[in-house]
Design a protein that fits this description.
Elements (H helix, E strand, L loop, with lengths): L1 H5 L7 E4 L3 E5 L7 E7 L12 H18 L6 E4 L15 E5 L9
């Protein structure tokens, strides 16, 4: 599904795009700000990621998106679920950027 969003085949509310990453609003937000950050090339999960630079670039991109969304100063959470027991339901590597409220711990 996320590859189809990258290709423009499925609509999404895109907030930022670069050659290597895309950020868009989550359809089922779990916080006032809930954005998804994905690589523009398909990687199934963190376990499948072979390119450390791409992973670092995704984190840097997530930081930029948080700043531009206005949640960086007060704080935000970046979540990366891996495989079914880790809560991953869409098998395209993605980061959740959550903010706009205080986060609780433990997360669940």
């Amino acid at each position: 599904m996320f590859c189809r969003i990258v290709a423009g085949e499925i609509p999404a509310t895109i907030v930022k795009r670069t050659d290597g990453a895309l950020a868009f609003k989550d359809l089922s937000p779990q916080a006032p700000t809930h954005l998804l950050v994905i690589p523009t090339t398909h990687v199934g999960s963190l376990n499948d990621a072979k390119d450390g630079k791409m992973l670092g670039d995704l984190l840097s991109f997530a930081r930029e998106v948080a700043r531009e969304a206005g949640i960086a100063t007060k704080g935000y959470r970046v979540v990366l679920n891996t495989n079914p027991d880790g809560g991953q339901t869409v098998f395209h590597l993605h980061l959740h950027v959550l903010g706009g409220r205080a986060m609780q711990w433990p997360p669940g």
